[in-house]
């Protein structure tokens, strides 16, 4: 039996021009055919008329964490359950069909990756890293997702332990951040040369991609030189950083939400609602606002230079994160097509599964969403979600 989606506009995210009056045929979880006009069907086919809606790949968020902080006394079981519910809501309510973890305590991301791979609960694909690794007195220790390491052998032990727990990639924090105490600053780098070199050498030896938190020019250039698969944030970049990104092919995940969603910078209703719920401490608002313009400039430099870029939010909950980040990409200068590619095709390529996912093409797995109106005309149209599919199975139907 085939699932046949007809009377739709296909945004394949390869070509910026939608394919109108199209039919998509899905068999055994994969896209078998995309054809013009009405379908040829049999009695056993399941045909859905999409009524001129827009079909595109499921969305990705390639920088996520479980929510934090958590009330005192919250157990690991409670944290793990809440993370799974958060991921499921992202899939069902926002069409986020895949995520890449930037740090999750107790290997919660590994657990939910396994749970969602099987025939059990519906959830997004999860690319897991377990804890993020930082130094003693390093970045974001209050999150509950950090593991502190010191010295080359400290990093070696921690990385091997992460691998033993079946992670997909290793997250290394090379520098400070915007959200942290006064000694945790994004302008400062944390690792000694022998620490960072040992960490990257071991990951290379074991063929594990490195997700590098790097926020200033020195840390960005070090991460690229040592072979990071992706650099996260890069709030401050000089021209050499951009040149290194382009020449190396390293991926950049800008996480605009960290600096652009303070109460003073939020402009849309959705942004203002998020900022009101988040209730950032006043000192963190000051830090975000102070970093915002330079971060936008770094994003725009990378975009103009053709750096490989994928979309990750670094915020929660999942039902909001990707959609807010997409809006910020457009507000900060990307076209809607660039933003959508970053959240689909590029994200899948970053995670090493581009041949299987990220676009609407014959042979690919049918992780798809349907929205009522064209998101190329207005990125906010992604909020008009109608259907969510994972491997050709409908996991959410909002057509009402």
Question: TL;DR?
Answer:
The protein is of the alpha/beta class.
Structural class: alpha/beta
- The general outline is globular
Give me the CATH fold name of the largest domain: TIM Barrel
CATH second-level architecture of the largest domain: Alpha-Beta Barrel
Considering the protein shown, what is the CATH homologous superfamily of the largest domain? Metal-dependent hydrolases
What is the H/E order?
EEEEEHEHEEEHEHEHEHEHHHHHHEEE
Rg on CA atoms, Å: 21 Å
Query: What value does the average pLDDT take?
Result: 96
Percent of residues in helices comes to 25-40%
How many DSSP helices? 12
Provide the domain count: 2
Bin the strand percentage. Answer: 15-25%
Biggest β-sheet: count, sense, barrel? 7 strands, mixed
């Amino acid at each position: 039996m085939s699932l046949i989606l007809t009377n739709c506009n296909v945004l394949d995210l390869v070509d910026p021009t939608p394919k109108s009056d199209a039919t998509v045929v899905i068999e055994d979880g994969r896209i078998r055919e995309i054809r013009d006009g009405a379908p040829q069907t049999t009695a056993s086919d399941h045909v859905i008329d999409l009524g001129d809606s827009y079909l595109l790949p499921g969305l990705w968020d390639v920088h996520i964490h479980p929510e934090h902080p958590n009330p005192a006394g919250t157990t690991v079981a409670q944290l793990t359950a809440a993370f799974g519910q958060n991921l499921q809501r992202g899939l069902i309510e926002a069409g986020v069909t895949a995520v890449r973890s930037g740090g999750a305590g107790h290997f919660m991301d590994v657990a939910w990756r396994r749970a969602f791979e099987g025939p059990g609960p519906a959830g997004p694909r999860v690319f897991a890293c377990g804890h993020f690794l930082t130094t003693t007195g390093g970045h974001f220790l209050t999150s509950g997702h950090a593991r502190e390491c010191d010295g080359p052998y400290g990093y070696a032990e921690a990385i091997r332990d992460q691998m033993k727990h079946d992670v997909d990639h290793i997250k290394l924090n090379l520098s400070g951040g915007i959200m942290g105490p006064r000694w945790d600053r994004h302008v400062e780098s944390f690792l000694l040369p022998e620490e960072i070199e040992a960490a990257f050498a071991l990951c290379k030896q074991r063929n594990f991609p490195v997700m590098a938190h790097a926020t200033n020019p020195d840390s960005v250039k070090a991460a690229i030189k040592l072979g990071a698969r992706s650099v996260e944030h890069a709030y401050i970049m000089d021209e050499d950083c951009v040149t290194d990104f382009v020449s190396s092919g390293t991926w950049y995940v800008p996480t605009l939400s960290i600096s652009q969603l303070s109460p003073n910078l939020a402009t849309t209703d959705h942004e203002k609602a998020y900022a009101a719920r988040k209730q950032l401490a006043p000192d963190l608002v000051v830090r975000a606002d102070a970093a915002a313009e330079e971060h936008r400039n770094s994003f725009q430099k990378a975009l103009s230079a053709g750096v490989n870029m994928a979309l990750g939010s670094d915020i929660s909950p999942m039902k909001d994160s990707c959609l807010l980040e997409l809006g910020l990409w457009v507000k900060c200068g990307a076209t809607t097509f660039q933003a959508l590619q970053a959240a689909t095709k590029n994200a899948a390529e970053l995670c090493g599964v581009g041949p299987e996912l990220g676009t609407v093409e014959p042979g690919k797995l049918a992780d798809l969403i349907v929205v009522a109106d064209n998101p190329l005309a207005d990125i906010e149209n992604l909020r008009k979600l109608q259907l969510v599919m994972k491997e050709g199975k409908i996991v959410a139907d909002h057509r009402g």
